[in-house]
Recover the amino acids of this structure.
């Protein structure tokens, strides 16, 4: 049985109609109309004895998608009702999403922090700290987004090797550094300033300019270049 077969009937919609189930809503309204729980239910495909796929999706949706995307296969396998096939499907789905996000279709040049935000809209409300490097060509167009590290709520360990290796491999002309503050406060810490100075020095050595370091958070954005911290 699949996600719709094991989904209990929903309350009647206004006007006496039946509320649409996830697969029906996907077909008629498109994926953007679906809640996180419904999307997860569709990836799961079916439920278990006594638990529908939608109910399992609701339980998983208590975590933000950016958090679920970091779960390794072993963690999925540790969940009740998630066997190797479902765990593999979930890991694959999040990896495809990550790859799609890392290969941008927008070719507008990045000229300031507002342009950077268009490529990291998932970061301001992420629950863990992500350090991302945007790889730019000679026209300052985004060629690729690379996630360098995913840290704790308070700090992310960043090594210049992990920052500049993808830039070198993909022949980037320059980079923009981006990370989020899960606390909601975008003000740079002393650690942020120290990491930035170190990466600027390494960038000069390898011939790849660091154009900016942008901190994004729920309560705003800080550009190191705009603050004249570069």
């Amino acid at each position: 049985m699949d996600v719709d077969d094991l989904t209990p009937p929903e309350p009647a919609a206004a006007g006496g109609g039946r509320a649409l189930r996830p697969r029906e809503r996907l077909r008629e309204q498109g994926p953007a109309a679906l809640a996180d729980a419904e999307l997860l239910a569709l990836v799961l495909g079916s439920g278990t004895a006594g638990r529908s796929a939608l109910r399992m999706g609701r339980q998983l949706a208590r975590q933000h998608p950016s958090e679920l995307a970091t779960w390794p296969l072993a963690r999925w396998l540790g969940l009740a009702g998630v066997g190797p096939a479902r765990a593999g499907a979930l890991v694959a789905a999040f990896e495809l999403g990550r790859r799609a996000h890392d290969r941008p279709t927008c070719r507008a040049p990045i000229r300031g922090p507002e342009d950077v935000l268009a490529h990291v809209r998932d970061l301001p409300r992420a629950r863990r700290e992500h350090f991302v490097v945007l790889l730019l060509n000679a026209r300052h167009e985004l060629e690729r987004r690379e996630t360098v590290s995913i840290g704790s709520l308070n700090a992310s360990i960043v090594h210049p090797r992990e920052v500049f290796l993808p830039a070198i491999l993909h022949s980037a002309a320059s980079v923009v550094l981006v990370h989020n503050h899960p606390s909601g406060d975008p003000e740079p810490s002393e650690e942020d300033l120290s990491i930035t100075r170190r990466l600027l020095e390494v960038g000069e050595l390898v011939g790849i300019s660091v154009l900016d370091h942008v901190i994004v958070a729920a309560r705003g954005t800080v550009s190191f270049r705009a603050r004249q911290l570069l």
